Amino acid sequence: MQNASGDPDRATSVERLADTVLPTRHGRFRMTAFRGGTGVEHVALSVGVHDDDPPDARTPLVRLHSECLTGDALGSHRCDCGEQLQHSLHLLAGSGRGVLVYVRGHEGRGIGLVEKLRAYALQDAGLDTVDANLRLGHLADARTYDEAAAVLADLGIHRLRLLSSNPAKERALRALGVDVVERVPIVVPPRPENARYLRTKRERMGHDGPDDAWELLLDGTVPEGGVLAERYGDLVRPDGPQVLAQLGLSLDGFIACRTGDARSVTGEADREHLHRLRALVDAVVVGGVTAAVDNPRLTVREVAGEHPVRAVVDPRGRLPLASGLLTDGAAPTLWMVGPDVGVPAEMPAHVEVVRLGRPGPVEPEEVLAELRRRGLRRVLVEGGGRLVSAFVDAGAVDRLYLTTAPVLVGEGVPGLRLAGVDTMAEATRPPVRRWVLGEDVVTEVDLAAVRVADAPARRVANL
Prior knowledge:
Blueprint: E1 14-24, E2 27-36, E3 41-47, E4 61-66, H1 69-73, H2 81-95, E5 98-103, H3 107-110, H4 113-124, H5 129-135, H6 146-154, E6 159-163, H7 167-175, E7 179-184, H8 195-205, H9 210-218, H10 227-236, E8 243-250, E9 254-257, H11 268-279, E10 283-287, H12 288-294, E11 309-314, H13 324-327, E12 333-337, E13 351-355, H14 364-373, E14 379-383, H15 385-393, E15 399-405, E16 412-414, E17 432-437, E18 440-446, H16 447-461
Parallel strand pairs: 4-5, 4-6, 6-7, 8-14, 8-15, 10-11, 10-14, 11-12, 12-13
Antiparallel strand pairs: 1-2, 2-3, 3-5, 9-16, 15-18, 17-18
């Protein structure tokens, strides 16, 4: 038996009951069961933590996860608990040394399952989560962390990095004598069903919001932990990918139907993802035909961030002079046209006409060279399918994002089309990561890794 601080008035003792191994999709964890003095049973899932660790062992990453049957087990979208639980296990496994304490008795912020469901009914009638708890005669947050701290003490952990967006957890652990050297926010993407719940946590309970991690990324700093750091951290590192490309397409590989209509191929969550990519680059590139048909704005609106420079690759000069890109002045715009294309003598102040070297198909390296001459090094090639395919085929893209929507078009404008191979053995199999955005699936393709792997073979071939 242990307590957290050695002071019986400061923390409750717990008894260790069982110790085993739990394999999960995130990795193998040591799973330890405890019973507190109140009779409530808790479990700790740990990695890289041993009973005989020396006092100077690396400070572990620790998550105190409050029990939530509806979110953790039933997959409720009213809260973000289940997603936080899975993402915490993923981060802890990746850290190599960490603990998740699954704290029982914390259902509904400590009011119990039935009372939480009654609070849900009040929320359905218009109250937020705080006022619903208060209306039922409970505290806004009735959780205590004495037994969780005692679990950590039993595991030999008195100094930790806390994985939490809740400052109250940090204050509670410090009051129990635990040395919290750092608090690492954990943020998962919101859903329409839990947007109000998350807003209440931020505005009335002082939780960190997704913008905290996002602001760090915009400043070029990778936050430690969290979905945003995992998805976009590489993009802000100095040695990270410089040329990105993205397409949203149907299950059968089309970016638009046969009339050219490309509206709402993918959902709102993917649109936010696209705007994050725009906010993290210096310039966004689009083909002239795509710009003429879609009349895009190519600005950052769904998230915080500055608009990138907009570059329209239009060797035949098909972009109408009345298009938004040439008239709205929202961001500097490069109109990249062929040498013989006629353009007005005077253009709006935000538009610079760039003459390409020849009238035929554009060489991706020429476009990138023009951008680099202007200090625009981090680039997003956004569409259409022909332009993205040309950049990928030329080996100019470091990171490709393909978002697949659960829709079948049947016939339309194709997405990615590359030079073919004769056998599957010759097909490129790049490293990929996938994640779900609403109903869509993003596949992140690391094309830079393919070029690095192919480099030795190319050198041998050239000998």
